[in-house]
Amino acid sequence: MHARLVRSAAAIAVAAAGTLTWAPAASAEPTEPTPSASAAETPAPDAGSLEITTKDTAGDVLPGAVFLLLDSAGQEAGHGKTDAQGKLTFSDLAPGVYRLKETDSGSPLHEVVADQDVIVTPGATTRLTITDPFKAAKVLLQAKDDKTGKLLPGATVNIGTGSSTLLTLTTGAKGTASGELPMSSRKAQFWVKEIKAPAGYDLYKPTKTFTAGPGDPVTVTVTNAKTTTNPKPEPSGKPTHTPTAAPSSPGKPNSGTDRATPSASDSDTPETDTSAIAATPVGDSTPKTPTGSLAHTGADASLWLIAGAAVLIAAGGGALAGARRSRTDSHTEDNTRS
């Protein structure tokens, strides 16, 4: 109806003016502007991807390992688990630096690796191999007295495999020590060698062996025998016993006397041979040798008695000879008078 009114008004105006002129009506729809070259959009860069393969130190693949991928702003860009071949792929990633975190190894025998940065390049796949280490074996060392079983401090041992020493432990005040033994396979054999014995004990010389696996608790025990102590030898110059006096014997003086003691026959008047006396001229003062002889006196074989014995023998012999000479002279005078 509005259009009809417009046309009627135009017709009236034309009739009034006496001239017919056509003016096109304006369109109510706006026209689209022509885009300029500066306003054209820049095409988006090509996306990249990250492919992960997870293995252990023995070379076996590890399925079920869980990973989290963060972008440079710390926002999650993806997460997932490795498949039966140990693989996991993050696709459609904008080029840049990402942070990869392993949150679970998927195995009770393995540890997770430390976080690491990875770079994603445009239109390419970044391939990364993750090697999860085996869990260490837990070793408890004990040193004991081989007789009483008492725990001993101060024992030092080396633990290793082949020609390599992997762990050194020394027992503390309680006689024990603990440590982690690195593992490179699911089962391995190790040796134990004591290199320092506890104070007062002999070194445990045998080499022991044991088998352990990742995460296994293992107790290793070495036994030590007490050091044998020998008695202290006496100095060679010191006598081992007190010397005793040698017993008296025929022909040897008694060490307890100062001079020889005359026998009972010497204390009485000696029995002399009268015929021998009568043959001796009167006034001859030379004493007749008596039929009895003086007991032989000798010296003890001991060196420290030689000097003393010699003096005693000389003094006793002189006294005895004087006594006998005196008795012989008295005898001679009595016979002469009679």
Automatic annotation (TrEMBL):
Cleaved signal peptide residues: 1-28
InterPro entries tied to this protein: Ig-like_fold (IPR013783), SpaA_PFL_dom_1 (IPR041033)
Record bears the keyword Membrane: yes
Keyword Secreted set for record: yes
Biased composition (Polar residues): 251-277
Pfam families for this protein: SpaA
Transmembrane region(s): 303-323
Biased composition range(s): Low complexity: 25-45, 217-231, 239-249
Keywords linked to the UniProt accession: Membrane, Secreted, Signal, Transmembrane, Transmembrane helix
Domain of life: Bacteria
Residue span of region Disordered: 25-51, 209-294
Ranges where the SpaA-like prealbumin fold domain occurs: 48-107, 140-226
Family from the record: Belongs to the serine-aspartate repeat-containing protein (SDr) family.
Protein name per Swiss-Prot or TrEMBL: SpaA isopeptide-forming pilin-related protein
